[in-house]
Amino acid sequence: MEKVLILLVLVILGLTVEAAYKAPRRIHTLFSVECGNYFDWQTVGLMHSFRKAKQPGHITRLLSCTDEQKKSYRGMHLAPTFEVPSMSIHPVTGDRYPAINKPAGVVYWLKHSKDAENVDWILILDADMIIRGPIRPYEIGAEKGRPVAAYYGYLRGCDNILAQLHTKHPEQCDKVGGLLAMHIDDLRALAPMWLSKTEEVRLDKAHWGENITGDIYEKGWISEMYGYSFGAAEVGLRHKINDNLMIYPGYAPREGVEPILLHYGLRFSVGNWSFSKADHDEDDVIYNCGRLFPQPPYPREVNMLETDPNLRRGLFLSIECINILNEGLLLHHASNGCPKPPWSKYLNYLKSGTFAKLTRPKYATPATLEMMDDKIQEQVDHDSSRPYPKIHTIFSTECSSYFDWQTVGLMHSFHLSGQPGNITRLLSCSDEDLKLYKGHNLAPTHYVPSMSQHPLTGDWYPAINKPAAVLHWLNHANIDAEFIVILDADMIMRGPITPWEFKAAKGRPVSTPYDYLIGCDNELAKLHTSHPEACDKVGGVIIMHIDDLRKFALLWLHKTEEVRADRAHYARNITGDVYESGWISEMYGYSFGAAELKLRHTINREIMIYPGYAFEPSIKYRVFHYGLRFSIGNWSFDKAKWRETDIVNKCWAKFPEPPDPSTLDHDNEKSLQQNLLSIECVKTLNEALHQHHERVGCNRGNSLFASKGDNTDEGVISKHMLANDSEELESVHNDRMGIPSSFRFWVLFLCVFSGLGFLVVIFWVHSGQKRRGMKMKHHRVRRRSLYP
User: Fold this and answer.
1) Environment class of residue 580 by beta-carbon count within 10 Å: exposed (0-12), middle (13-18) or buried (19+)?
2) What pTM, to 2 d.p., does this model score?
3) Pair 644, 402: CB distance under 8 Å
């Protein structure tokens, strides 16, 4: 009996100790939604991932609906729900701003929910998120007085007059959002101020401008985000900022990082498949039995699409996101009495052990838990005591075969160059073009609305997409880099381009010379900038600090529009534009925008070279810019001649091979080196195309009649090597098989002759069998007649 009592006491003590240990670690997850199909399917996805990831604690949906909406609302059962009065239309001002429901819902929950009295740690998420693994605030670095949050770098209002107007402590404004993990006491202090500052910023229409808020729509849509940052600054709450825990599908995590949260707020794609939540604004997919979102490629297809391991990881995250959403929809339909859907390969995959294994809960790695530095490095000269600053490379393109082959070349050279950091293609396309576009998988891509035809003036000027795309990327992407390298698509990288090597610094970007921008020296600059003396003739390659780019990008766009509209000064003697059509307005937009901010460049002539043009043999140029025609003897290359030719989607298509180096004149050393650079440029392009065709599965055995789609012989386009380029172009474009017409005639004749011969043989064999069959039949009849 004594042993039983001792054992009982030990068990009680153990339970007491465990309860005491767990008491300060109670976690509650919150997310805010409104009544409607759009938030309902997101709720199903988030709730499914919450369970699948084994997230500890409870979860509550803060549901903001009007009484009228509740009458017809079908989704009350989708999640544990706490109803919150809707503030979509402000009760005092009448302002319609649904995003205010988030802070208003949190304030109401803290005041009226019993759950709020029995919790220690709060995790606040958005509905459009997928949880990949358990998130315990105290394990990811949150402390009382120091919340953890994701980085929202586009909140530029923290650095300007907006913060100075709306908080007494602008220096404490943190650019954060998305994932918020904090102690309940911190949330109690912050929540009322979060709501109040949201109302305050929302009313400040005078400062809704994009150059102040970073809001591209200039409608105050992100007032709630500023309300959070300003409210936290007001109560003295500084964040530990983490840029690894959360990732947008479509982006690749850094090496060693295991993201725990997917935020599908932006369009993302894998190959020709893409997904955007905005396309499903009114989608009743959860109430429509058997409906799922369009299935993404399978993992084995992703392996074929991308060879770079890190970029492939990004694609796997993209398909994981949509597959978990679809798995959640499938389970939701089953739990609501929907009939079992018919068998399909995709449904079978979602129910397979392979998929279950791939989507098991993930856990943060040490790299995932690394926080961003509190201090931004002002000096970039490297020394052994500090790490190099992070770099991100970007380039702008449109939806066309012309830009696709350039993209293939640049991406191939990027991977060979040793360039640090990630690269992003800024793809400007109309909705119509995007539906037909095949090149989604050619590069990590940020999608941008096309401004080729100006939405206000109707002016057709595709070059404006470059500044417009940079601005859109800055405002919508999660950028973790300190320096941005901007390239053009028609470039081949030969080595790394880094701020520490070329001495770029905050306030002092580096660029390459564009000496033909004579407008910097005449009336053009005087008309379009307040500081014509600060106009630098630069372009091509740009290395700029992210803070400078954020201040500058909008001016780049506006000055481009301004110069483009100034038709009175298109003349060659003013602009240097040989066509006198305003084609280089974007280049002047860049120079005049920088001058307006007195942003002076370090001009470096050792970064970029045009193949076929003057060079210094002792310099190791980092970039080929093949924007101009270049030649060696009778061979030449001009990118403009390949504007309409689909080289990327034609198996084994390539550019005309340049001459063999052994055939060059070796007597003139400088001329020889110049020609070798030209050969290197085009050979790199052809190598890039060859690797691309291998990657997409072109048939090696029969390249002339290749396997995947509409393919062409690798020799077809190479026929341009003959003497007259223009004639060869015409012959190739008109005769896609590249076979002489006389040869085609004989091939056709042989095919017809062979076919007829085959029919004659079949007829003869058939006739012979029939005759033999008749003889055998008569023989059997005779044999039977011998027996009664």
Assistant:
1) middle
2) 0.57
3) yes
